[in-house]
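Tutorial, part two.
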Amino acid sequence: MMVEDGATLAASQYMENKRVIDEGGKGGDDPVGCPDHTSRRTYQVTGDFGKVDGVTSTEQADLAGPPLRVTLRGMGYEPDDSASSVNQSGRSIGVLRKKVPGITFTVIVQSSLPNIEIIGKTDCLPAN
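Running the prediction step on this input gives:
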């Protein structure tokens, strides 16, 4: 479900130079902070804004964050306002969680490259 949701989210925003860095833990499970014999699965994709005449990357960053968060909310994710940050122009960090089955997405939108980072992690699951 995490990989499907992450791919849906990445497809919802036009991105150039899209790079899937880790799809479902294929790069290795992450045992940090998990009990013995468990680990997290991860999903990560990055991309850059396309060029839009007359629009700066700061303006694009300010506009791109809300639709990504709305897309996640439409998939049943709830915002974690204590971990999210939309406090400066040209950069926002949204953290949204789906309690069942235990998936958290962090969405970073910024004026610097890569402009969009989408990072998903599961709760601790039995290790392979």
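Residues 27 and 107 are 20 Å apart (CA to CA). In part three we will examine how such features are distributed along the chain.
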